[in-house]
Design a protein that fits this description.
alpha/beta; Rossmann fold
């Protein structure tokens, strides 16, 4: 009789807890697979471990053990002929997938995240940012001195945006916004996807000058309706629009820094203009399981920022010239909507 793995809810408590504690191994397995671009290699057809080992210059028996583990997680599938292929989950790790997460998973297993989370206890005991403790400086100045890490980070943020772009553009009506500005929008993939769906709208991408230079507007076919503005949102945000986007921005910063950013935006934002904060929203029920509470630990360790509840966002808006008007419970991220008063 073929052995089967019990469903998670059937596992005894100690086994469930062990699965959680060993999650760091799963993280590295996924990250290594992303770095080796295994999903790309099997995208045109299943491959044997020997073929994949030759293509990735790895040790075949050890690579097989990685592939087997990924198959057990539902990321890959081993066929009767011993060849491995992608599942629907594995397809998301292809670099050419429209919602590719390859760069994000690469980043999560790199030294910057890995070593910092190894020092999470330092943050819990002292409130200090574990990244600063580990690397001797805050994360964004660090990226300024380490261009390869910065490149991986930028690609990762682009992949996050691509992954959520369909959800955001489908769950919110942008039709009344003649001009949409993406504040700290990286390479502009989220803005580009929205503009593709709303051909009457124009877009403005605001970020650091060296970041906006790498925008994807030409590739995405919206360059005739977009412009870029370089700057520092802690100094000013000289952008006038009907609607402003901020995805994965405010969670990087503490409350005082968020108020500073929002006040700078309020100086340019016309009265009645809308602001959409795209983040993982923490539920008011602290016992409710959610990704947002895990992401909150990531911000504790990496930046000193935090994920927030709707009421906490409302308090930030009240201090900076905005008013919370709605919360859109989309997945995997949520949309917190405010208006410039």
């Amino acid at each position: 009789m073929e052995a089967t793995t019990p469903a998670r809810h059937e596992l005894p408590p100690e086994a469930q807890l062990m699965n959680m504690a060993m999650g760091f191994i799963v993280s590295q397995a996924v990250a290594v697979s992303a770095r080796l671009k295994i999903a790309d290699l099997v995208s045109e057809g299943p491959k044997t471990p020997a073929e994949l080992a030759a293509a990735t210059e790895t040790h075949e028996p050890s690579l097989f053990r990685l592939l087997r583990a990924l198959a057990s997680l539902g990321i890959m599938r081993k066929g009767d002929d011993g060849r491995f292929s992608n599942t629907a989950l594995g397809d998301l790790m292809r670099s050419d997938h429209p919602q590719s997460m390859q760069a994000a998973f690469h980043m999560m297993g790199d030294a910057e995240h890995w070593s910092s989370h190894g020092n999470m206890q330092q943050s819990v005991k002292t409130g200090e940012i574990a990244f600063d403790y580990t690397f001797g400086m805050p994360v964004f100045p660090y990226f300024g001195q380490h261009p390869e890490a910065a490149r991986v980070f930028d690609r990762s943020m682009t992949s996050f945006s691509a992954a959520v772009a369909h959800s955001v553009s489908s769950s919110y009506d942008f039709s009344s916004a003649g001009t949409i500005a993406d504040v700290a929008g990286g390479h502009g993939i989220l803005l580009a996807k929205i503009l593709q769906k709303y051909p009457e709208s124009r877009g403005i991408l605001f970020d650091q000058p060296q970041v906006v230079e790498g925008n994807v507007f030409g590739v995405e076919g919206v360059s005739d309706r977009t412009e870029t503005v370089g700057g520092d949102f802690f100094k000013s945000i000289p952008v006038v629009a009907d609607l402003y986007l901020m995805k994965f921005i405010l969670h990087d910063w503490n409350d005082e820094q968020c108020v500073e950013i929002l006040k700078n935006l309020a100086k340019s934002a016309p009265s009645g203009s809308r602001l959409l904060i795209v983040e993982t929203l923490i539920e008011e029920d602290d016992n409710q399981p959610s990704l947002s509470k895990i992401m909150d630990l990531n911000m504790l360790v990496m930046t000193g920022g935090r994920e927030r509840t709707a009421s906490e966002y409302a308090a930030l808006f009240e201090r900076s010239g905005f008013e919370l008007t709605d919360v859109h419970l989309t997945q995997p991220l949520q949309i917190i909507e405010a208006v410039r008063v």
